[in-house]
Amino acid sequence: QVQLAESGGGLVQAGGSLRLSCTFPGRTFSQYVLGWFRQVPGKEREFVASIRSTGGSTYYAESVKGRFTVSRDNDLYLQMNSLRPEDTGVYYCAACWKCTTARTMAGVDHNVIDYWGKGTQVSVSS
User: Fold this and answer.
1) pLDDT class for 40, splitting at 50, 70, 90?
2) Quick check: 68 and 48 in contact, CB under 8 A?
3) How far apart are CA 114 and CA 16, in angstroms?
4) Per-residue pLDDT tens for 3-30?
5) SS3 track for the chain
6) Would you say 47 and 62 are in contact if contact means Cβ atoms under 8 Å apart?
């Protein structure tokens, strides 16, 4: 069905940077709140960052505020700077129609998320 596609993950030392991208082939998501989640084994998928529209409002988890920047044009991006080992995980992009604001995505039931990517691995070594 509808599948978002993440890229840009990899292995980086603490303090380094990565830029993740999420593509939406053949579809328009201009009216969706878009965002990023991450997950490690044994833990629930957790919110990272979201953006309401192109050039619109953004919202960040406290743990990444000041280090990560989410942006979008036709695609979705996550610029990750000053990476820490605790940032390690599989990162998923997501699209939400019912999330009327960027902040809403942070607390919404994951069942409400309309579309998910398959995930891209981010590994940060100490």
Assistant:
1) very high
2) yes
3) 32
4) 788 999 999 999 999 999 999 877 788 8
5) CCCEEEECCEEEECCCCEEEEEECCCCCCCCCEEEEEEECCCCCCEEEEEECCCCCCEEECCCCCCCEEEEECCCEEEEECCCCHHHCEEEEEEEECCCCCHHHHHHCCHHHCCEEECCEEEEEEC
6) no
- Smallest Cα–Cα separation from 32: which of 114, 107, 90, 108? 114
Are the C-beta atoms of 115 and 102 separated by less than 8 Å? no
pLDDT digits (tens, 9 = 90+) for 61-113: 999 999 999 999 889 999 999 999 999 999 999 999 999 899 999 999 999 99
Amino acid in position 123: S
Chain length of the chain: 126
Closest CA to 95 of 116, 122, 68: 116
**Alpha carbons 27 and 89: distance in angstroms, whole number:** 27
Give φ, ψ of 81 to 5 degrees.
Answer: -115, 165
